[in-house]
Amino acid sequence: MINQKLADSLNWTLLHVLIVICEEGSISAAADRLNITQSAVSQNLKKLEEQLESQLIIRNTKPLELTPIGRYCLQVAQIIFAEITSIEAMQGSNSHLLEGVIKLLVVSRIHNPKYNDFLVYFKKKYPNITLDLTVKTSMDILDDLNKKTPAIGICLAKTIPDTLTKTLLFNQRYYLYCGYHHPLFSVDEIEFSSLLKEDFIAFNSEDIGDVLSPITVFKESHDLTGRISGYTNNLDEAVRLIYTGHGIGALPDQFIAATHLESKLRRMPPKEGISDIPVYILWHKHRNLSAIESKFIEEIIDFDISF
After folding, report:
1. β-strand pairing of 100-106 with 57-58
2. CATH number of the domain residue 186 falls in
């Protein structure tokens, strides 16, 4: 039988150091590329020579010169790392082999064309992965994730527990709107000053410190002192109350543009809107992610669905 002692004990990282030394032409240049000291590169080379019981590089030669066993070792090392690179390529080309179920907890009424594009892309690349979506409030999503529920969350968040990892996906821009049955809907020119005493429709999460509190901060800092004529925690019900003239309210612009509501609602001043509300993807720091969960997170972050 072939003696496998060397194969079992050889440190493959040392072979990579040899490749870099040869590609860069010197120990100093290899140290710069690997971001380690020249001494560390020399020590790694010495360890490799000790393990192989052979001198690989002829010292103090310019250009760098390998011994016969050194040239053979370099050839073997290059073959090994070419095979490793091919494994990475196979991972990408065989994405259709990945399968399983990803549990997603998603806040309702997320509208972003790039998010839709990502879902199209993900389905084509990973046709055997199933997405199991459950719609919940942002508060419930954060609570579930904090309990290590095996899921990934996509939601709004003002205060995020330290146990969760977050990455910003995109911002939803909120504007003030009135509805078809509101007196301001048919006014030719609307000045911001005409909104100061108007009744408002508010979300429950507009309380200070909550996820939509920037809306309240805007209203208070701009003297919008009208009474709250309706509360809701549901975007569709907020739209209903605004459309039927119960008050004006803040709504995400992407949502209005993506639905049939443009003819039923009218955007109010200020023309630049009132606040950006961030939408995050979140997961628990101390829960081991499955391979397909990690892939979903990696892909959606790399896709960049921000505006």
Report:
1. unpaired
2. 3.40.190.290
Domain boundary among 74, 93, 112: 93
Residues in the chain, total: 307
- Beta strand spans in the chain (E): 57-58, 65-66, 100-106, 129-135, 152-156, 164-179, 200-203, 228-232, 248-252, 265-267, 275-284
The per-residue pLDDT string of the chain (307 residues; one tens digit each, 9 = 90 and over) reads: 345 566 667 777 888 889 888 888 888 888 888 888 889 889 999 999 988 888 999 888 777 888 999 888 888 887 777 666 555 544 555 666 788 999 999 988 777 778 888 999 999 889 999 999 999 888 899 999 999 889 999 998 888 889 999 999 998 889 999 999 999 999 999 999 999 999 999 988 777 667 788 888 999 999 998 999 999 988 889 999 999 999 999 998 877 766 677 789 999 999 999 998 889 999 999 888 888 999 999 999 998 777 5
Range of the domain at 65: 5-93
Q: Are residues 175 and 274 in the same domain?
A: yes
Instruction: Please indicate, yes or no, whether residues 77 and 216 belong to a single structural domain of this protein.
Output: no
CATH number at residue 65: 1.10.10.10
CATH (domain of 126): 3.40.190.10
Q: What share of the chain is helix, strand, coil (3-state, %, to 5)?
A: 45, 20, 30
In angstroms, what CA-CA distances link 10 with 47, 52, 74, 82, 278? 10, 8, 14, 18, 50
Number of independent structural domains in the chain: 3
